[in-house]
Write a structure and sequence with these properties.
heterotrimer, A alpha/beta, B mainly alpha, C mainly alpha, A: alpha/beta, Rossmann fold, 2 domains, 6-stranded mixed β-sheet, 4-stranded antiparallel β-sheet, 10 helices, 38% helix, globular, B: mainly alpha
């Protein structure tokens, strides 16, 4: 008798042969990967590698030219952003997009109101917002306008907004850019705590130190294709990755 | 067939005239993001100025054009510098409201001064026409159309070849950067509006020679036409205004031939909406100032 | 890695216990108590005051107030789609005319009672709003404005040309005399009451919507549609619903207006300056609030009537001049100006002008 093989757990996110073309330019070319639940996947790559495009395709902000996006095995390719948000996927924007006419608390509350916890009243959403603001560390700004926040606090607001929708999968787009050393430390801590509470995280990042200390696995994009995937240490010493970032001559000099 | 050609010919020359009405409106909208509700009122003011010149001094309207242009330019400059500049940074609909109020003031002022009777400027030649094959082409409209084309081309050249034109274009694309380069934005805006007012006045003069006008219905009709043509041609696009005018002129003319009643207007609106949905930047290409950074 | 022991931890915050349906319902009922009840009380008081006032004033003033009530409703309706959601519709008058003609045609051609015709008129407005809203709400800013303007103009022309049904350019009349009358004419007091109820209803509906989750969704769509979509707001639905509710109110006003006027032409009820008046009332009062359009409608309509009565031929000119002055000095709207001035204790009007100037 052949022992029945245990079914492999469905990846929470699977991207199959995704390509995206803008006119004559291929932003992404035949990209495939999957993320298991509870993982933290880091995505790095030189500027223009297609990282933000990838997030936009996964979250429905734009439509892939070809390929599929699957959440928990369900094909969500081409779905509108709010449909995907209700599949418990949330994201932050690289250039933060707060709702400027509302207070910080209201910004977060909107996520709670319209996210995955459907029956929340306005008042309860505001209360939830307060809890989330406390968690990310900007509770003292609850009544301020988003425009008054510092860069780091604005990023925290962006994160709190996304978390308010109660996601299982969170895609964060370059949260560390422009942060000071201590702020980066705090952000890394926060990401770890989020994972501990059960959220799968895909983090697009440029800041190497941060991405290495945060990720279980790293994916490297270059000119729209994956050139490496694996544990942080392995990926960063991969020749192709070094060449992509630092150029041909550096690689040659290293090997001589 | 003969009727069709006649309608087409009429449509073309009418279209040139309409383009002249629209080109200033499109410029102001494209460069300054100001929708001038009182544009038609400026045109009619120009018509009255020319009419006065004709009544008092017997001046031929075509000769009165420079006077009209200068007068309206000054008027427009002052209005922009003194009023509209004050709310440039507010949401766009405030300029719409301001120009709406302005429109009421100008229209009623004209009405009080001149009564709402229809007026026209009679010239010996404007109503005559010459025959081009089977088609009759009226002199007046032909002259207006010709003038419209000349002015549009001249304006386009000014915009692309002169320092002033470059300044206007730069301010339209990125006011903050333009100011950092030393361009006096308040003055440039006022000049642009003045040019638009002058063009409207010239168009009004032309309309006075080929037809009649009054302060109650003419301005609204002209502003609406300018709206439609600007959208069709792309905001801030001079040649686009010309094309848009021709399209509208021909469409209205042939439509009037084929359809009864005022179905023509309904069709025009449907076309407008279709263009907006399918190709919002206008029929012939990019609206010139679609991406704008305000300072 | 204890998940729930620390109350402030992400786990505790992010993973709530599942609530049963009963618990959800009880929470909902509890949350119905508004946090701030004095606006509602004020509104009720105002409504009662208007009812009392009716007994005290003469017919001429009744007519004036009736017009004010109508504009209050129209302004609130525009504010919903233009102020909160940020899609300035310049074709609102289309729904007004549609409501008016629906009622007129049904009452004149088919002898339908007004009480049946009015809901049909509202439905017609909603359907038309959905019909043109779905394609047009994809447009941004001033393109949406022109497109709706075009739709309104187009609708007028269509009505103008459907002469066998609508009477076309010759106008239409609602029968109010004789035995065949579908509904007896309300008379001035009746219309005063009807428009008052409409005004009160629109203020109430808009106020409730504004404070609800839907209200926040409208503001979010206005501010940043991409961000709104990313947090789960169905932006298309929000826009269309706001547009449709707005249309319903306007169509209802048009229906009442038709009955009140008895006889009218297409240009009367499809008058584009109606739309501009609505916009002016909201903008001068202050968009994105409930009090703003209310103040704007009352203030401007009263002003307009006052000028008409007292200044005769000059009234439109002065009206236009006043609009220019108010827009220049109070670009954010009079109500918002006072609100901010009270908050920051800065009352300088000239300072206000400097905020938006080039």
């Amino acid at each position: 008798m052949i022992a029945p093989q245990a079914a492999a757990p469905t990846a929470i996110l699977e991207v199959r042969n995704i390509s995206k073309r803008f006119g004559g330019l291929w932003a992404l070319r035949d990209v495939s990967f999957s993320v298991a639940e509870g993982q933290i996947l880091g995505v790095i790559g030189p500027n223009g590698a297609g990282k933000s495009t990838l997030v936009n395709l996964i979250t429905g902000l734009s439509r892939p030219t070809s390929g599929q996006v699957l959440i928990d095995g369900k094909d969500v390719t081409g779905s509108r952003p709010w449909v995907i948000a209700h599949d418990r996927v949330a994201r932050t924007f690289q250039i933060v997009k707060p709702f400027r006419g509302l207070t910080v608390r209201e910004n977060v509350a909107i996520g709670a109101m319209h996210g995955n916890e459907r029956d929340l009243s306005v008042r309860d959403s505001l209360a939830t917002a307060d809890e989330l603001l406390e968690m990310v560390g900007i509770a003292k700004h609850a009544n301020d306008a988003p425009g008054q926040l510092s860069v780091a606090d604005a990023r925290r607001l962006e994160l709190a907004k996304a978390l308010a929708t109660r996601p299982r999968l969170l895609l964060i787009d370059e949260v560390m850019a422009g942060l000071r050393y201590a702020e980066i430390e705090a952000a890394v801590q926060l990401i770890h705590r989020l994972r501990d509470s059960g959220i799968t995280i895909v983090a697009i990042e440029h800041v190497m130190k941060a991405i290495v200390s945060v990720s279980d696995q790293i994916l490297v994009l270059h000119h729209g294709s994956i050139i490496a995937r694996g544990a942080p240490r392995d990926v960063l010493s991969d020749e192709r990755v070094i060449e992509a970032y630092l150029g041909n001559r550096y690689v040659k000099r290293r090997s001589t | 067939m003969g009727q069709f050609l006649q309608a087409a010919a009429y449509g073309i020359v009418q279209g040139g005239l309409l383009a002249l009405v629209a080109v200033g409106f499109s410029l102001v909208w494209g460069v300054m993001n100001v929708i001038n509700f009182s544009h038609g009122a400026f045109a009619v003011t120009g018509a009255y100025v020319a009419w006065l010149m004709s009544q008092r001094f017997g001046l031929d309207p075509f000769l009165a054009i420079p006077i009209v242009a200068i007068a309206l330019f000054g008027f427009g400059y002052v209005i922009q510098r003194g009023l509209i500049n004050l709310i440039i940074n507010a949401p766009i609909f405030l300029t719409l409201l301001l120009t709406f109020g302005l429109n009421l003031v100008i229209l009623n002022g004209l009405q009080l001064l001149f009564t709402s009777d229809d007026r026209t400027i009679d010239t010996s030649y404007a109503s005559q026409s010459f025959a081009l094959g089977v088609v009759n082409v009226p002199y007046g409209r032909l002259a207006a159309c010709f003038l419209a084309i000349v002015i549009t081309v001249a304006l386009a050249l000014v915009m692309t070849r002169t320092r002033l034109g470059h300044a206007i274009g730069a301010t339209g694309m990125d006011r903050g950067a333009a100011r950092l380069m030393g361009i006096r934005a308040r003055h440039i805006y006022a000049v642009t509006f003045g040019i638009a007012a002058a063009l409207a006045g010239i168009a009004g003069t032309m309309i006075a020679t080929v037809g009649s006008f009054n302060p109650t219905t003419t301005p609204g009709q002209l502003t609406l036409d300018a709206f439609v043509i600007s959208v069709l041609g792309g905001l801030g696009n001079m040649y686009g205004a010309l094309v848009g005018g021709l399209v509208l002129g021909i469409a209205e003319s042939i439509g009037g031939l084929l359809l009864t009643g005022t179905w023509v207007n309904a069709i025009a609106m449907a076309v407008l909406i279709a263009v907006l949905i399918i190709r919002p930047s206008g029929l012939i290409g990019k609206a010139q100032y679609s991406g704008r950074v305000e300072v | 890695m204890s998940a729930g022991s620390d109350p402030g931890s992400p786990a505790a915050v992010l993973q709530r216990p599942h609530r049963t349906r009963v618990q959800v319902f009880v929470d909902w009922v509890r949350s119905r108590r508004p946090a701030n009840s004095w606006p509602a009380l004020l509104g009720l008081a105002g409504f009662a005051a208007m009812l009392v006032l009716q007994q005290l004033i003469e017919p001429g003033t009744q007519r004036l107030l009736t017009a004010v009530f109508m504009f209050v409703a129209l302004a609130q309706a525009w504010n919903l789609i233009g102020g909160y959601t940020g899609y300035a519709s310049f074709g609102q008058v289309a729904f007004f005319g549609l409501g008016a003609y629906t009622v007129a045609v049904l009452m004149n051609n088919y002898h339908v009672s007004f009480w049946l015709a009015m809901p049909v008129a509202i439905l017609a407005g909603v359907l038309f709003a959905v019909l043109i809203g779905v394609p047009l709400l994809r447009l941004r800013g001033h393109y949406f404005a022109i497109a709706t303007l075009g739709a309104a103009e187009g609708l007028r022309e269509v009505v103008n040309n459907l002469t066998p049904i609508t009477g076309g350019g010759l106008g239409i009349t609602i029968p109010t005399f004789g035995d065949q009358v579908p509904t007896p004419y309300f008379g001035k007091p009746g219309f005063y009451l009807a428009f008052l109820v409409l005004a009160a209803a629109s203020v109430a509906v808009c106020a409730l919507l504004a404070r609800s989750r839907f209200g926040y969704a409208m503001v979010a769509v206005n501010e940043d549609q991409e961000a709104a979509g990313a947090v789960g707001i169905n932006t298309t639905l929000v826009k269309v619903v706001a547009f449709a509710v707005s249309a319903a109110i306007v169509a209802c006003a048009g229906a009442l207006y038709a009955f009140q006027q008895i006889e009218f032409y297409p240009t009367d009820v499809f008058d584009a300056s109606f739309t501009v008046l609505m916009v002016i009332m909201v903008m001068i009062g202050g968009s994105g609030t409930i009090a703003g359009p209310l103040a704007g409608a009352v203030g401007l309509e009263l002003l307009s009537q006052f000028l008409r009565v007292n200044l005769g031929a000059y009234n439109q000119l002065i009206f236009g001049a006043i609009i220019v002055v108010v827009v220049v000095f109070f670009p954010q709207g009079v109500v918002n100006y006072f609100r901010e001035a009270l908050r920051s204790r800065e009352f300088s009007v000239l300072g206000n002008v400097r905020r938006y100037r080039l």
